[in-house]
Fold this sequence. Notes:
The chain is of the alpha+beta class. The protein has three domains: about 1-45 and about 150-225 and about 365-400, FAD/NAD(P)-binding domain (3-Layer(bba) Sandwich), CATH 3.50.50.60; about 90-140, no CATH class; about 225-360, D-Amino Acid Oxidase, Chain A, domain 2 (2-Layer Sandwich), CATH 3.30.9. Helix content is about 30%, strand content about 25%. The protein contains eleven helices and 20 strands. The strands form three sheets. Strands 5, 6, 7, 13, 14, 15, 16, 17 and 18 form a nine-stranded mixed sheet that branches. Strands 1, 2, 9, 10, 11, 12, 19 and 20 form an eight-stranded mixed sheet that branches. A hairpin with a 4-residue loop joins strand 10 and strand 11 (about 185-190). The radius of gyration is 21 Å and the shape is globular. The relative contact order is 0.20.
Amino acid sequence: MRYDVIITGGGIVGLATALQLQRQGPRLRIAVLEKEGQLASHQSSHNSGVIHSGIYYRPGSLRATNCKRGYEQLLQFCRENNIQHDICGKIIVASEASERSALDKILQRGIENGLQGIRKITAEEAREIEPNVQAVEAVWVPQAGIVDYGTVAHKYAEIFQANGGEVFVNQKLVRVKTEKTAVVVETSNSHNQGLSLEGNVLVNCAGLYSDYVAQRTGQNPGVQIIPFRGEYYELKPDSEHLVRNLIYPVPNPNFPFLGVHFTRMIHGGIEAGPNAVLAFRREGYSRWDLNIKELVETLAFPGFQKIACKYWRDGWAEIQRSYSKAHFVRALQRLVPSIQADDLIPGRSGVRAMACDREGNLLDDFLILEHPRILNVCNAPSPAATASLAVGETIAKKILERC
Length: 403
């Protein structure tokens, strides 16, 4: 089978890329390959569901610029397709005086990123928004919201297919061969019904396995994906009154995660989390999920070893939160002191794909490696879901230069 463009990875970034490419080149023949039986099975449907404002990201970075464009595109898409969403706003809370300077930096970064209406608020104003919060002061971010990104991703796919795009599930990419006039992609599945496809351009949006796929295309991405699991608790229905919308802490500047927080979900309920612990396999959604080969690859990678040495104290605290509900509750009580262990029940989990180089640096921006016939999206961190249509638009423009 011959296509103009083949996209491997049927998550929200791969599907947004397919949709945006179809919009810009309606005559192109496009195929999306997904190794699972359903689209958007991993990061796209195992995230917090937050519509990010872009307040945290380095001004001028791809994360910042794509978040700003993608935010507006996402809201328009949701309105046009009747996808439930809510721009409810959030507060970022300084729980003690020592966090005030870090809060000021977050506010300044938001201003530099062009956010309108964000402002510093007093403890009293914070309690007007979230009556049970503990704060010495906070930042109000009116742009933040909530949505179900799994629903968004499936709508991308629905529109893409309705306009002639093709989607193949249960097709795992196993081989890539670059020829003079085409890229040949071979897939496999458990029923020995693999495919052989030819395309002018191959796009790698494989998420947790993006580095694997990049290597199969002959490119050295220079990074390895390190999987970090994030675990959640849910507030019991009779405790949901303790949180109205979204409450975030001031992030630990010495640790590359936002910290446990409270999130109202678009379909109801309040989630608390996530923590961040090493997953023992790329798609390890519980502490019992183990893939020896993948775990050894992670532990043997020099970049991970340097991360472990650098962040061992913070990492140990995250592990304690994973294995001890009491430790998790204490972290939440910094935001809402009235929360008790009996208010919480175990919830779901997700896995983040964190790209790490050999020097132990976790990449804080998108990484797209270009080849005349191949584009490898080797890092698409948060806010990739919020920014998916903007990221897809960016990738589509690069593809059209090659078609």
